[in-house]
Design goal:
By secondary structure, the chain is of the alpha/beta class. It is 36% helix and 18% strand.
């Protein structure tokens, strides 16, 4: 649907203009738009709908009435308002507008609830487009709470494929549509962002046409072509970034590591458990890379609890025993401290010197590290500070690497004095394996498929009022056995709506349910030293119940934790729920996961049922991808990791097409000298480690 009124047609805005330049958007509304990360005209253009509602069929009133009763669905009519009445119902004093609408085929009732502004907005005798669901009002079929637009105007909320956006309080899809209609002229003046030969070869819709049709489709066919065009551009940008990085930084000279044949057997003898086949295969792949005079650039990808850290330990041992130093960077002080506690006892057996550097703790001096007196330095971003230098840094390991930006990782790699250090990144980012292997087919990747030997499947159940007593008994039993309990709340402070659990509200409730238990809290706003103190108390068994936000989803390893109780589970995606569930079941003890939700929404119920019955992170990742789209994995908070808004990562054909197109361009022009615009907009996923 194109808007052709003169007032809209003549409007033009700069991409950098704040949205307050748009008609009808003042400072208070702009603040609400900011909650959706929409601050400029450019942001609004790139805020794509999450779905489209087909209201293109305008039905005669008689046809609509003839199909009632029928399953509730939205219908659109074009009819004149013949009469109206406004009143408050005796029950709850609800404001009601009751009207009769008529077209050439007949008349029907229209009813609106709690919309008093309609008293002056609707005029009897005028013709309107009305779109909404059919319902029952006072034993009569009626169109309930329909969107309303004058028939003399170009319809914005009815009579076509209507965009439905992700919303927030005070910003509905209607509000976004009203804002978006004012930027159509700006969109039509945007330059093409892809080379003309690519657009022609793949018969892609021009950018301006695609953006107009993604917000206001003129037909189902044009909507599909718009999706295809914008999806192609997103995936192509990623693939070009990968191909560019591979061509320019893929093979850098490195310092070979002399890994003795006896090292792996000696390492395995010191472990109190048996490694899985995929762990052994990953170690052998890493050793093979370390022996080469080319700097290793390998990703170790594994499901939560799959044993990535012990594989990294083997790499650390190999590099340090050959005379090199190793740096291991973690995203949080809690995780860095945990790595130190877990790795130091093992590496002490091989006479390796391990130290820890974080924002609040420094176990060795900068001089000791610079003089090579520390073999393994574990830390947070404190490792990239100027005063930290190494004598012979030859292996860099980054855990949960998607949480760091390219520049942060590069600063750590630049600490090497001689050649490029070998690089190993660890990630439990739950990308479906088939998608990952298709999208990143050029990367050196080791994948851990099996859980460690001896682990029992985690029993997952829905927590309800009916089984609360049983859950309480089970938790008391686990506390008596000196096992730790995790309780997860989505918020820190009390929720005004009282629909979301918080640390504050749950702490009071837990004290009532478990009065004898030792309860501690953990959340992101606590000082680093306090968080470390809490986790140390958890590790030593001083804490029975740890009440936390999702801050613990990142790599927390407490073998004695056997129960996790997740409040407001509907607030988390399947992938994040699986990450949280992975905080228990990290030993041979039977573990349990309880999920609780106040909603009875059908879609949410089906999603949580899937989580209850599936323990495989890869399968859940596939489902999350289908249900929630790429945003389930590639959030803009993840330091640049695949900022996909519309591309479908299950579309292997399009992934392969963009992969081939990107490789073709890089083969012809490895430095993108002839494509400066493309180079300036490259997406360099954090799986690529730019020099």
């Amino acid at each position: 649907m194109f808007f052709s009124s003169q007032s809209i047609k003549t409007m033009f805005f700069l991409l950098s203009d704040p949205i307050t330049k748009l008609p009808g958007i003042g400072p208070s509304l702009a603040v609400k738009f900011g909650l959706l990360s929409i601050q400029t005209v450019d942001d609004l253009i790139g805020y794509y709908p999450r779905r489209w509602e087909d209201l293109s069929v305008v039905s005669p009133v008689a046809t609509v009435l003839a199909t009632c009763p029928a399953p509730p669905q939205k219908v659109t009519i074009k009819a004149a308002i013949k009469s109206m009445a406004h009143f408050r119902s005796p029950y709850k004093r609800m404001f009601i507008t009751n009207a009769i609408a008529e077209d050439a085929s007949g008349a029907m009732r229209i009813v609106w609830f709690n919309q008093p502004y309609l008293r002056t907005a609707i005029k009897a005798g005028e013709t309107y487009y009305l779109s909404g669901p059919m319902g029952n009002w006072q034993n009569h079929s009626a169109l309930t709470n329909p969107a309303l637009e004058r028939a003399t105007d170009t319809p914005l909320h009815s009579g076509g494929l209507i965009p439905i956006y992700s919303e927030t309080a005070g910003i509905s899809s209607k509000v976004i549509r009203r804002a978006a209609r004012h930027i159509l002229n700006t969109i039509r003046h945007l330059p093409e962002s892809l080379p003309s030969d690519i657009v022609a070869t793949h018969q892609l819709m021009p950018l301006t046409e695609a953006l107009v049709n993604i917000h206001f489709p003129t037909s189902p066919q044009n909507l599909q072509r718009a999706k295809q065009r914008l999806s192609f551009e997103e995936l192509f940008s990623v693939q070009l970034g990968l191909a560019f990085a591979r061509a320019n930084w893929g093979e850098l000279p490195g310092q070979p590591v002399l890994v003795s044949k006896q090292l792996l057997p000696k390492f395995l003898q010191q472990l109190p458990f048996t490694l899985t086949a995929s762990q052994l295969a990953a170690i052998k792949e890493i050793f093979h890379d370390l022996r080469r005079p080319i700097a290793m650039n390998r990703l170790l990808l594994g499901d939560v609890g799959s044993g990535k850290t012990i594989v990294a330990a083997a790499a650390i041992l190999a590099a340090a025993k050959a005379g090199g130093q190793v740096a291991l960077m973690a995203p949080t002080e809690v995780l860095a401290a945990q790595h130190y506690s877990n790795l130091k006892p093992l590496l002490d057996k091989f006479n390796l010197r391990t130290t820890l550097i974080t924002g609040s703790k420094k176990l060795s001096s900068s001089a000791d590290i610079a003089q090579g007196k520390c073999d393994l330095v574990i830390g947070t971003q404190a490792l990239i500070q100027h005063q930290v230098s190494f004598k012979n840094l030859n292996l860099v390991i980054v855990d949960e690497q998607h949480r760091f930006g390219v520049s942060q990782r590069q600063q750590l790699k630049n600490k090497a004095q001689i050649a490029s250090p070998h690089y190993l990144s660890l990630s439990a980012t739950p990308i479906p394996r088939t998608v990952f292997l298709t999208l990143f087919s050029d990367l050196d990747t080791s994948i851990l498929i099996n859980p460690p030997v001896g682990r029992l499947p985690i029993i997952t159940r829905l927590a309800t009022a009916n089984n609360l007593a049983k859950i309480q008994l089970l938790i008391n039993r686990e506390i008596r056995a000196k096992h730790c309990i995790f309780v997860i709340a989505p918020l820190i402070e009390l929720d005004k709506t009282a629909r979301r659990s918080s640390i504050t509200s749950e702490l009071a409730r837990l004290r009532q349910l478990f009065p004898a238990a030792s309860i501690a809290t953990l959340h992101g706003k606590m000082p680093a030293e306090e968080k470390l103190s809490v986790m140390q108390a958890v590790q030593t068994g001083e804490v029975d119940i740890l009440l936390a936000t999702s801050v613990i989803e990142v790599g927390i390893d407490v073998p004695g934790a056997t129960v996790i109780w997740i409040k407001n589970a509907e607030r988390f995606g399947l992938a994040q729920l699986h990450q949280l569930r992975g905080r228990v079941g990290r030993s041979d003890l039977q573990s349990y996961c309880f999920i609780e939700t106040p909603t009875d929404d059908l879609e949410t119920s089906e999603r949580l049922k899937s989580f209850i019955h599936i323990n495989d992170g890869n399968k859940l990742a596939q489902m999350d991808l289908v249900m929630r789209g790429p945003g389930a994995f590639f959030d803009t908070r993840q330091s640049g990791f695949l900022k996909l808004k519309i591309a479908n990562l299950m579309d292997e054909d399009l992934i392969k097409l963009t992969h081939q197109t990107a490789k073709h361009i890089i083969r012809q022009d490895p430095t993108l000298k002839n494509y400066p615009e493309l180079k300036s907009r490259l997406q360099l996923p954090v799986l690529v480690h730019a020099e």
